[in-house]
């Protein structure tokens, strides 16, 4: 049974979410503030987390950052529930690594569709791992351990940056369009602009430095390619 953790302090929303998610066959747990949300996420390791942005004790952005930085929860998909559309830019993972967001008030149908899309993508990407280990001169990618090394030195990447690098490396030598990257790495076709991909690739390159970043080449007007 797929389990979903709701971290939200508004009781009405929690109740509505619980009711609808259970009806869809999900196993649901919930927390009403950031601190207990973190605790339950670490203990129960849910398959997906719905995370409110404004929370007592520890706010949603902080909770998201913490979960994405801990190895046990780094790959757990997180959908942020935000109140204002002005918060979206911040939320959409650029800074905090969330996988998706919905703006309140949201439609239950839309949210459930997004949950299903994200879960499908995670299952798919798990099954598609053909080579859990990539070794190139200067650059090593260990999919299983979720580790990247440049010249033997470990590089800290966000879950998204890692997923990007992994997907590009798995498709070495192929031109990958931005929208393809959005679709596979983010699992969203319309909600995020393609420039999101560029921002993430830029950060990924910076982190990998000259020696690691040289593998990712830009195809002007198209997207990116991993080249050896
Ligand atoms: Ca709230």
From TrEMBL:
Any one GO cellular component localisation term in the record: cytosol
Residues within the DNA-binding region(s): 131-228
Presence of keyword DNA-binding: yes
GO biological process, one term: regulation of DNA-templated transcription
OmpR/PhoB-type domain: residues covered: 131-228
Keywords: DNA-binding, Phosphoprotein, Transcription, Transcription regulation, Two-component regulatory system
Residue span, Response regulatory domain: 3-119
Protein name: DNA-binding response regulator
Modified residues (4-aspartylphosphate): 52
Highest taxon listed in the record's lineage: Bacteria
PANTHER family according to UniProt: REGULATOR OF RPOS, TWO-COMPONENT RESPONSE REGULATOR ORR33
Transmembrane region(s): none
Keyword DNA-binding appears in the UniProt entry: yes
A Pfam family this chain is assigned to: Trans_reg_C
Organism: Candidatus Saganbacteria bacterium CG08_land_8_20_14_0_20_45_16
Cross-referenced InterPro entries: CheY-like_superfamily (IPR011006), OmpR/PhoB-type_DNA-bd (IPR001867), Sig_transdc_resp-reg_C-effctor (IPR016032), Sig_transdc_resp-reg_receiver (IPR001789), WalR-like (IPR039420), WH-like_DNA-bd_sf (IPR036388)
GO molecular function, a single term: phosphorelay response regulator activity
């Amino acid at each position: 049974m797929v389990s979903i953790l709701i971290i939200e302090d508004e009781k009405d929303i929690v109740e509505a979410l619980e009711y609808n998610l259970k009806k869809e066959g999900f196993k649901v747990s919930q927390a009403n503030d950031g601190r207990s949300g973190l605790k339950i996420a670490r203990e129960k390791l849910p398959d997906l987390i719905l995370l409110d942005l404004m929370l007592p004790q520890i706010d949603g952005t902080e909770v998201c950052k913490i979960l994405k930085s801990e190895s046990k929860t780094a790959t757990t998909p997180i959908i942020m529930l935000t109140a204002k559309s002005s918060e979206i830019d911040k939320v959409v993972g650029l800074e905090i690594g969330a996988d998706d967001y919905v703006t309140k008030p949201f439609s239950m149908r839309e949210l459930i569709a997004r949950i299903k899309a994200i879960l499908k993508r995670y299952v798919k990407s798990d099954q598609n791992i053909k080579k859990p280990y990539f070794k190139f001169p200067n650059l090593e990618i260990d999919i299983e351990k979720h580790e990247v090394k440049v010249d033997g030195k470990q590089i800290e990447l966000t879950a998204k940056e890692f997923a990007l690098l992994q997907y590009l490396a798995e498709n070495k030598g192929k031109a990958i369009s931005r929208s393809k990257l959005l679709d596979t790495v983010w699992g969203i076709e319309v909600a995020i602009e393609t420039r999101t991909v560029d921002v993430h690739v830029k950060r990924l390159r910076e982190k990998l430095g000259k020696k690691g970043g040289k593998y990712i080449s830009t195809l002007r007007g198209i997207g990116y390619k991993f080249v050896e």
